[in-house]
């Protein structure tokens, strides 16, 4: 079978290779993979940015994907041949809260990821995709969608009538926008692109702020919220944007810290976090049980994931990873097999 494997710790070392096609043993599922989608994590992993958690070379990259079950081993009951499924981001997180063990089972480093024609996984490490989705759409769910669901629904507990500020128009951000609207929230979306902001309106963006033309977007968001501040901020920037997020949120509000696109280290005034009783919550994807709950909601509401118009081919993984940090995409970046 064909795989796209990383042979050195840089994206230019990715090469098309052949490996033996696996066969499912007892309790295992063989998946014919059809699509994969990229996350910021994949670009970091290609540079061994997670240190010892990155795994060993050669490594098949990318954590997210979807495909059809081709065969099952003895004793498998959760899925059957012909089902469209997604491998879970972590193969060692069936349910419950996050633990250090989660990192030992993540796909695309340290375990081989989804850029391979076939994957053989334990049945506990796959989830049925929503029935109305294509493989390309389902491939966007395991990391980006589930992270947003965890931030907005599971840990954020966003309620109808609350105000939620969301940063950016990447995959996590647009899923967070969709889930916030699904739960009746009023949404504020910020981006550096007026064009992307307008494209996000049909997804449920109530208020739009261009942070290039409005650098003090935290103040602007607070004013939209009547001077009180928003109830919840979905924070993907990190140290570069966290202080403005803290300024935007109301007393006893929540900032869900998902990404560090604008920096993972830097000085942040933590005084207001204490004096305003602000909850600063780190978010790391989610369990298989949470994934299944999210999929039920997606199917009920017939939600279709936002995918960038340009689709990459299987062999174009290097080009896709190089293009990803440029931020020209809107929604999820997908490679189709």
Question: How would you describe what is shown here?
Answer:
This protein is of the alpha/beta class and 337 residues long. The protein has two domains: 2-143 and 286-336, Quinone Oxidoreductase, Chain A, domain 1 (Alpha-Beta Complex), CATH 3.90.180.10; 156-282, Rossmann fold, CATH 3.40.50.720. 25% of the residues lie in helices and 26% in strands. The chain has helices at 40-45, 135-138, 141-154, 171-182, 194-200, 217-224, 242-248, 271-275, 288-301, 317-323, and strands spanning 2-6, 14-18, 28-37, 59-60, 64-72, 84-87, 118-122, 126-128, 163-167, 186-191, 207-210, 230-235, 249-257, 279-282, 307-313, 332-336. The strands form three sheets. Strands 3, 5, 6, 7, 8, 15 and 16 form a seven-stranded mixed beta sheet that branches. Strands 11-10-9-12-13-14 form a six-stranded parallel beta sheet, with helices on both faces. A three-stranded antiparallel beta sheet has the order 2-1-4, with no helix packed on it. Strand 10, helix 5 (194-200) and strand 11 (207-210) form a beta-alpha-beta unit. Helix 3 crosses helix 4 and helix 6 runs parallel beside helix 7 (242-248). The longest helix has 14 residues, at 141-154. The two termini are 12 Å apart. The model has no long low-confidence stretch (mean pLDDT 94).
